[in-house]
């Protein structure tokens, strides 16, 4: 009986893990830092801000980092800690990003050359011998 109870509690805890690790912010509006504080935080990080909006109860900043790469950052509205940081050119598994794949040019890999160790220098196909 104790093993069954322990097993059930473990399975329940594992199943609840993804729900507890959600990136939504549940903070009363009275505790929120002002939008200007989020903009100041972004400026202190070296980010140029294009837009600040509220998404899933968090501040969402879209702009560019100090290197000029497009970024999307979710900030906790009370502590202004970074909850999620994405580079916009990173590939996601999100369904709405699938249409971006067609517009990206895929780089052409360089043609590999034969090693200079003499093993494949003759241009002949290597032979496999099974004993």
UniProtKB/TrEMBL annotation:
Residues 85-101 have a biased composition (Acidic residues). Residues 82-131 are annotated as: Disordered. Residues 6-84 form the PepSY domain. Residues 1-21 form the signal peptide. It holds the Pfam family PepSY_2. The keyword Signal applies. Keywords: Signal. This is PepSY domain-containing protein.
């Amino acid at each position: 009986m104790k093993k069954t109870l322990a097993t059930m509690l473990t399975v329940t805890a594992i199943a609840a893990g993804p729900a507890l690790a959600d990136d939504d912010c549940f903070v009363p509006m009275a505790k929120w830092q002002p939008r200007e504080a989020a903009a100041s935080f972004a400026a202190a990080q070296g980010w140029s801000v294009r837009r600040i909006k509220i998404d899933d109860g968090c501040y969402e900043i879209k702009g560019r980092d100090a290197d000029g790469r497009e970024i999307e950052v979710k900030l906790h509205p009370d502590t202004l800690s970074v909850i999620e940081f994405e580079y916009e050119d990173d590939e996601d598994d999100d369904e709405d990003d699938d249409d971006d794949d067609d517009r990206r040019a895929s780089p052409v890999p360089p043609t590999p050359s034969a090693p200079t160790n003499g093993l494949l220098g003759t241009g002949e196909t290597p032979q496999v011998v099974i004993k």
